[in-house]
Design a protein that fits this description.
Elements: E1 8-15, H1 18-28, E2 32-39, E3 42-51, E4 60-65, E5 78-85, H2 91-100, E6 109-111, E7 114-120, E8 126-131, E9 155-162, H3 166-175, E10 179-184, E11 187-191, E12 200-205, E13 219-226, H4 229-241, E14 250-251, E15 255-261, E16 267-275, H5 300-306
Parallel strand pairs: 1-4, 5-8, 9-12, 13-16
Antiparallel strand pairs: 1-13, 2-3, 3-4, 5-9, 6-7, 7-8, 10-11, 11-12, 14-15, 15-16
Length: about 300
């Protein structure tokens, strides 16, 4: 791999009820539950990870399910949509499935010459399924009800809503090596050729849009992928030289993280591939038991008593 940003690593959002969130993403969407742990800053709250069989970068959607949290609102300074790639011809399956499970959805539409299907999760988070032009060779995770010929393949893109795209675009092009590849009205599509998938960022420019309220049903941050710590720290130096406030490296057990807020207001993370999700449980057991950061292991009984039962 090159010493570059390798597209999207993961996306983290905020949910309300934990059981409802778990059921929707595992049962309705058919994602694999790859890790149950807690928020490192709030151990009384779960941190859920959903993805493909192995929790591959570019497939990982994570949630902080904060119980009775108020509903947030989309707006400027926020990532506002999450796009998944799906096999061509799968929209009929998904629309029937959404009707069966009472999932709100819109009729298929087209953007940049690609068909997409928009829907919302139980907290109001906007997701989109894309039949991308390019063939996606990623291996899908399948369940008894969601087979490989229709299952999600991982992220296709995400959309950032901004009052002005100028400064954000500069981060994408000058630091992350993305390029502007298309424009439709006030939507600008950026992509990187460093990786073949999960490599698209759309910037939606809405000058009069109100600022977002980051609460339930909204996206908390977007994490970009690097191969290892050495490459990550080289990016830290570049970002710091631009005068942006970026955190020291933080160990998240399954990857190492840097965080900074880009000039448009969206929280960005740079996350490493290492060490991965099998660092504390084998592949076949992913997501089956509660994994705690070392600093909270002594509080396991109290934490488990407080958390909602899932199974």
């Amino acid at each position: 791999m090159e010493n570059r940003i390798l597209g999207i690593h993961h996306i983290t959002a905020i949910a309300g009820d934990a059981k409802r969130n778990f059921d929707f993403y595992t049962k309705v969407l058919g994602l694999r539950f790859i890790k149950r742990t807690v928020n490192f800053d709030d151990p009384g709250t779960y941190h859920f990870y959903f993805g493909d069989e192995q929790g591959s970068a570019g497939t990982i959607l994570t949630f902080f399910p904060w119980g009775n949290i108020q509903k947030g609102s989309k707006g400027a300074g926020m990532a506002t949509e999450i796009g998944y790639a799906v096999p061509k011809g799968s929209f009929d399956f998904w629309m029937k499935r959404f009707e069966t499970y009472h999932v709100p959805y819109d009729q298929p539409a087209e953007r940049f010459g690609e068909k997409y299907l928009s829907f919302t999760d139980p907290d109001g988070l906007t997701l989109e399924l894309f039949e991308a032009k390019e063939t996606d060779i990623r291996k899908p995770y399948e369940t008894d009800e969601v087979k490989a010929d229709v299952a999600t393949l991982g992220f296709y893109n995400t959309t950032l809503t901004l009052n002005s795209i100028t400064a954000t675009a500069k981060i994408l092009t000058d630091i992350f090596d993305y390029k502007l590849v298309a424009q439709e009205g006030n939507r600008y599509r950026y992509s990187t050729d460093a990786i073949a998938h999960a490599n698209v960022i759309d910037l939606l420019e809405l000058p009069s849009e109100k600022r977002a309220n980051n609460a339930g049903g909204t996206i908390h941050h977007i994490a970009f992928r690097v191969e290892n710590d050495e490459i990550q720290m080289a990016f830290r130096e570049k970002i710091a030289k631009m005068g942006l406030n970026i955190t020291p490296q933080i160990d998240r057990n399954y990857f190492h993280s840097l965080y900074f807020r880009e000039p448009g207001g969206v929280l960005f993370e740079i996350a490493t591939d290492n060490p991965g999700f099998t660092v504390d449980e084998p592949l076949e057991e992913l997501g089956k038991s509660l994994k705690l950061p070392a600093q909270y292991e002594s509080q396991r009984k109290q934490i488990e008593a407080h958390l909602v039962k899932l199974d």
